[in-house]
Amino acid sequence: MTSTPVTFDDVVLDCEIDGPSSGPLAVCLHGFPDTRATFRHLAPVLNSLGYRTVIPAMRGYAPSSTSTDDNYSVSALASDALRLHEHFAGDDSAVLIGHDWGASATYAALSAEPGRWRRAVTMGVPPVGSMVEAFSTYGQLRMSWYMWLFQLPLADIMVPLNDFEFISHLWRDWSPSYDAASDVERVRAALANTPNTTAALTYYRQMFDAVARRESQQSIFDARMATPSVPTLYLHGDECGCIAKEHFSNPLDHLAPGSRFELISSAGHFLHLEQPEIVNQLISTWLTI
Questions:
Q1: Which residues of 222-245 are buried (b: 16+ CB within 10 A; e: fewer)?
Q2: What value does the mean pLDDT take over residues 158-176?
Q3: Does the domain at residues 2-287 carry the CATH identifier 3.40.50.1820?
Q4: For the chain, which terminal residue's Cβ has fewer other Cβ atoms within 10 angstroms, N or C?
Q5: Domain locations along the chain
Q6: For residue 269, what pLDDT band results from cuts at 50, 70 and 90?
Q7: Which bin fits 248, alpha (ψ -120 to 50), beta or left (φ > 0)?
Q8: What pLDDT, on the 0 to 100 scale, is given for residue 1?
């Protein structure tokens, strides 16, 4: 796997690339608090299926750069996915895969420009309609306490304390049966510099933006709440400590016809790391239909 910087006008995304150069494009987007190494089990499977796999470090996560205009909105994340599709000469056979914030970016990218993607896979964060329902419950609001902490300047001090102990606790809470030591170490490296930590927190601070931050992203912003028309496989861990399965309704009510939902047993929020064989098989089957 080679690492290549891709330069856009507002950010440089460092991308790991593997698989046949002539194969259909597969773009994989990670979330918080995580790194692109989260796809280390899935990428070889995608390559074996003939995909050219592109995995960026998301904007603000080293070795990618921070945003020159401090834009970490979902529209910006989706724009990055769309621009990577264009940069790597993707066509309508491309697939988009996202976990956590990467899932949120995937929904917006699919809604804004569905013609770029044949199929999609999302994990850990259900579609927008399901999330709206989840946030109407006391139980999910209580589980999402960290989102409100991140709105405060205090979070910039608290999160890095004691060698990012906060991040270790989040992984333990969200995937209690998983040994996340090596993953947390990667997150420490990605967010070690203060601007990177602030960038990761700014994802949450721009959750409720009422206007598009860039004119070029207006169409994505306008489409971000719509139901995507691209068939999507949604995967969720039945032990997820980030978003509990009982707090959202059937995700298929908010996905394109022909989509599929699978609840992964004995898995938390980082289900693709906890149950890679099961998750990889489900994704392989989905992408070969």
A1: ebbebbbebbbbbbbbebbbbbbe
A2: 98
A3: yes
A4: C
A5: 2-287
A6: very high
A7: beta
A8: 83
